Design the sequence.
């Protein structure tokens, strides 16, 4: 018995020695494949040369990158739980699956259209990072993002908010139909008719990038828009974008599962010392644009008013919240510019922050849309067109 114990002790000492000699770094991985030409710094499919697996895959629990904690946070994010990973066809998989997103990255982000992804996974670690090929957790891309304009006469926009650029690769309007015909602010004559043939004539859901930078809404020609709110121009937000607020370090205890890779705000994202401070108590903040009521209260109320006006015109079906439009029974609107009210309704409703990202822009788009629908009819022809 004693002999066996001794043997085990020696065995352990030897093991310790081996580990000490290798610096506990673990087994060296195979060399990585060469990166794609012209895709500086991005190696795909392959392990970085000399990568030490145990840097991240520790035999116990790694405390270098705290991957287990990050995975735990991510698993409560809507990225993990949203369930829309089944949107896996060519026009959808580029944002709704990790595999599709990687394909876009490989192909230089030229398009959102990719191959159909079967058995795909939702936006996960290997969408936003490329840890095996890069041996670190740098973001897959932080290049500025071109956002296609779907409003006639409005040029494409460039979103450039540092780390947040990664988010806006997906959190932007999608380029597929049915975005035709384009809404056109200059079509204000009663003879200008727009014919909408789809009940889903709207920009996509995650239009947060456009809202933050103050673009992508329909601006009526006879209304004066006064610009954006503070979040659009704040220096820190310009550098870190979405990440500044949605991925704040979880602080204190009892704050709920927010911050980090959960992407949930709670209030941690607002309470940063350099921003609203620790006494900040609600995302429904009454800033200059909407005081004395909070931004979210004001946007919710105006969205509801606009919705009622769209229902009253028989454009919106209240049961489905979709347009009463199809190819067999199209919706005709004259003057065509009034359709901008529909566009703005969906733009702001789908955006989700209820004014937090850019209170002034959201508020004025809603106020102008409401004013446009309430404007007295200018002619018998317009009355007939209703
Ligand atoms: C820079 C950090 C890092 C290094 C170094 C690293 N990995 Fe990983 N690896 C990850 C992460 C992150 C995941 C995903 C973990 C998760 O899903 O929670 C992962 C997942 C894996 C998986 C599971 C894949 C799957 O689809 O479930 C395997 C297998 C793996 N790594 C092998 C290796 C090998 C072999 C090496 C060394 C050659 C290595 N890793 C080096 C970060 C790393
Ligand atoms: C690969 C594309 C992709 C990237 C990159 C991405 N997202 Fe998302 N995000 C999605 C999708 C898709 C959903 C909806 C998931 C679902 O419903 O299945 C989503 C959902 C969310 C939600 C929840 C929205 C809600 O309705 O509650 C937040 C918040 C969010 N993302 C923030 C971010 C932030 C912040 C970043 C950047 C750090 C980011 N996302 C990067 C695709 C992406
Ligand atoms: C440019 C990236 C992108 C493309 C392409 C894309 N989506 Fe999305 N989609 C998103 C993001 C980001 C969200 C999350 C928005 C949110 O939850 O605030 C989302 C959310 C959704 C939702 C959930 C809406 C809700 O109410 O929660 C559905 C459904 C959806 N997408 C369907 C599709 C379909 C179908 C396609 C293909 C025709 C598609 N998406 C293509 C980025 C994209
Ligand atoms: C939607 C995009 C997104 C997804 C999905 C995502 N990350 Fe991240 N990750 C980020 C961003 C952005 C940062 C930088 C956060 C910051 O600066 O505060 C980051 C930071 C990190 C860091 C810290 C890096 C450092 O150098 O300190 C680690 C580690 C990490 N992520 C691991 C993971 C793991 C593991 C997963 C999967 C479970 C994952 N990430 C999924 C976007 C993402
Ligand atoms: C100034 C801080 C801030 C910045 C910057 C910011 N967000 Fe938000 N975001 C918020 C707050 C606050 C909410 C509202 C959360 C709530 O009401 O619970 C929100 C809401 C959202 C929602 C809707 C969530 C839901 O539950 O429906 C999404 C999606 C989102 N943000 C994504 C983004 C993306 C993508 C970016 C970058 C383009 C971004 N955000 C930039 C603070 C921010």
Sequence:
């Amino acid at each position: 018995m004693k002999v066996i114990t001794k043997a085990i002790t020696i065995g352990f000492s030897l093991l310790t020695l081996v580990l000490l000699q290798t610096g506990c770094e673990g087994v060296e991985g195979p060399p990585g494949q060469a990166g794609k030409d012209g895709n500086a710094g991005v190696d795909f499919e392959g392990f970085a040369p000399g990568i030490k697996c145990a840097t991240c895959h520790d035999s116990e629990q790694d405390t270098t990158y705290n991957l287990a904690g990050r995975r735990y946070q991510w698993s409560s994010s809507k990225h993990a739980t949203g369930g829309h990973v089944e949107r896996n066809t060519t026009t959808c998989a580029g944002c709704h699956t990790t595999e599709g997103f990687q394909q876009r990255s490989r192909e230089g982000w030229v398009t959102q259209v990719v191959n159909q992804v079967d058995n795909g996974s939702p936006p996960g670690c290997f969408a936003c990072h490329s840890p095996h090929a890069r041996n670190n957790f740098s973001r897959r891309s932080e290049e500025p993002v071109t956002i296609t304009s779907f409003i006639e006469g409005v040029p494409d926009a460039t979103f450039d908010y540092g780390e947040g650029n990664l988010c806006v690769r997906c959190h932007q309007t999608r380029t597929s139909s049915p975005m035709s015909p384009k809404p056109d602010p200059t079509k204000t004559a009663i003879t200008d008719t727009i014919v909408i043939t789809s009940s889903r004539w709207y920009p996509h859901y995650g239009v947060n990038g456009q809202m933050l930078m103050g673009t992508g809404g329909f601006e009526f020609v006879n209304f004066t828009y006064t610009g954006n709110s503070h979040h659009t121009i704040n220096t820190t937000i310009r550098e870190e974008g979405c990440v500044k607020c949605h991925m704040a370090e979880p602080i204190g205890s009892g704050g709920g599962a927010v911050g980090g890779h959960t992407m949930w705000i709670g209030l941690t994202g607002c309470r940063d010392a350099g921003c609203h401070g620790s006494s900040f108590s609600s995302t429904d903040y009454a800033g200059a644009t909407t005081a004395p009521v909070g931004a979210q209260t004001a946007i919710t109320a105006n969205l509801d008013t606009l919705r009622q006006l769209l229902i009253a015109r028989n454009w919106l079906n209240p049961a489905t919240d979709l347009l009463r439009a199809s190819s067999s029974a199209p919706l005709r609107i004259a003057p065509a510019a009034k359709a901008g009210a529909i566009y703005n309704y969906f733009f702001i409703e789908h955006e989700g922050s209820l004014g937090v990202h850019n209170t002034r822009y959201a508020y004025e788009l809603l106020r102008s849309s409401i004013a446009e629908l309430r404007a007295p009819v200018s002619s018998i022809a317009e009355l007939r067109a209703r």
